Amino acid sequence: MENLTVNEATLNKYFGILENLDINSKKSLIIKLTKSINTKPKQKYNINNIFGAWQGEETAEEIIDEIKNSRYNKREIAEL
User: DSSP labels for 6-73?
Assistant: First the structure.
């Protein structure tokens, strides 16, 4: 998502609304704005890293059987 850039007139309009907030709301807003400035930049992921062939000695059938056998069903049916 790109950052929103506003001009001075728009900032003054926002401030006109925000200056009527109570002290606790202003402090909370200051904290949130400060945290948004101090956040680490998001890491960019190389989409090519998620592609590739499966590397293993198992056959498709063996992998399917392993997945099916590892399933755990803890469903308890209550008797009436």
Answer: --HHHHHHHHHHHTTS-HHHHHHHHHHHHHHHSPPPPPPP-GGGG------S--HHHHHHHHHHT---
Q: Is 37 helix (H, G, I), strand (E, B) or coil?
A: helix
Q: Residue 1: what pLDDT?
A: 54
User: Do residues 30 and 21 make contact, with C-beta atoms less than 8 angstroms apart?
Assistant: no
Helix and strand counts by DSSP (H, E) for the chain: 3, 0
Global confidence as pTM = 0.42
The two tokens of residue 19 are 């200056």
